[in-house]
Design a protein that fits this description.
By secondary structure, the chain is an alpha+beta fold. It contains twelve helices and twelve strands.
């Protein structure tokens, strides 16, 4: 099973380490009970100037040292540098035991993939099983942990989840037997408010359980008023990060804004002792240059990290 998941895991990690002005893309096969969505446009990362000039060669060098992974990718006829488009992670209201869902969008050679999986099954036996739902193959991989269910819904969409019902739901939507519709209309509104040109974004509704768990905790108790969060990373020449936090009322928003400003001051103070190693210049820049704002019940934060600082940091990390 480890050999099977490695290509996907590698792509996820690569995409995270790393623009049209319509709303952000909302994955149509998301589970109806989704409360939080994280999406990374891997292709935009790869095509950005920062990645091409300062990061891509270093990452590719590390990537290609893994011979086992390269062999698997060759058998799958999948080149993550060309075939991987985006990764979407969806979390339910209570994401206990990791029961979220991962969608990988790209260009998949289904015939090569099925042949490779069949070869793997011959080696691992009952640790990998297959069944068919609505004419679509569903695989179950077992290791020491919980089973992982995954399916290629078509040549462009792969779904993985620890919850078999989420895979079945996605298949029903893929074949037209279930209408895609999120129960939380407020989440759809959050995504609509995000622009399509962002490299990565997050949108989510904060559960009452989580808010109650941090109420009264020193330094972060003001965060217990947060009802929704949205944010993005946009990579062009520079890297811009933005965050919007919707609270219960304007008084809570004011308290939260002040608390965030306090965290920025705190980072400025401790940064003098260089606790973040080679990332200290970036942390220092973020602490000094993040702009906070309040618009009614919503608190915003935004910072841009200049190209030169990113280039210097990457050069330092790969020395």
């Amino acid at each position: 099973m480890k050999h099977l998941i490695m290509p996907v895991v590698a792509c996820v990690v690569f995409g995270l380490t790393a623009t049209n002005s319509s709303a952000a893309h909302l994955e149509k096969y998301l589970p109806d009970d989704t409360q939080v969505i994280l999406q990374v446009h891997v292709r935009r990362v790869l095509e950005s100037k920062l990645a091409r000039e300062y990061l891509l060669a270093q990452i590719e060098k590390q990537f290609r040292r893994n011979k086992d992974l390269l062999n698997i990718l060759e058998q799958l006829n999948f080149d993550p540098w060309k075939d991987l488009a985006r990764i979407t992670i969806a979390l339910p209201p209570k994401a206990d035991d990791g029961e979220g869902t991962i969608f990988v969008t790209g260009n998949f050679d289904i015939r090569s993939i099925e042949k490779t999986l069949q070869d793997i099954k011959g080696k691992v036996g009952d640790k990998l099983s297959k069944r068919t739902i609505e004419g679509i193959a569903v695989y179950e991989g077992r290791s020491d942990d919980k089973p992982v269910y995954f399916s290629f819904l078509n040549r462009e969409s792969l779904i993985l989840s620890l919850n078999a019902e989420y895979v079945q739901e996605a298949i029903a939507k893929a074949v037209g037997k279930r209408i895609p519709k999120l129960r939380a209309s407020a989440l759809t509104d959050l995504v609509t408010g995000l622009e399509e040109d962002q490299t990565a974004w997050i949108a989510g509704l904060i559960s009452e359980q989580w808010r109650n768990s941090i109420a009264g905790v020193p330094f972060i108790s003001s965060a217990s008023s947060i009802e929704a969060v949205s944010g993005s990373v946009t990579i062009k020449n520079d890297l811009t990060m933005s965050l919007r936090l919707r609270t219960a009322n304007e008084e809570s928003a004011a308290q939260l804004r002040n608390a965030l400003g306090g965290i920025s001051v705190f980072l400025n103070v401790i940064n003098r002792d260089n606790p973040f190693g080679k990332l200290t210049p970036v942390v220092n820049h973020v602490a000094k240059n993040t702009r906070f704002s309040q618009d009614g019940v919503t608190v915003g934060a935004e910072v841009t990290i200049p190209e030169q600082l990113i280039r210097n940091t990457i050069a330092s990390l790969f020395k």
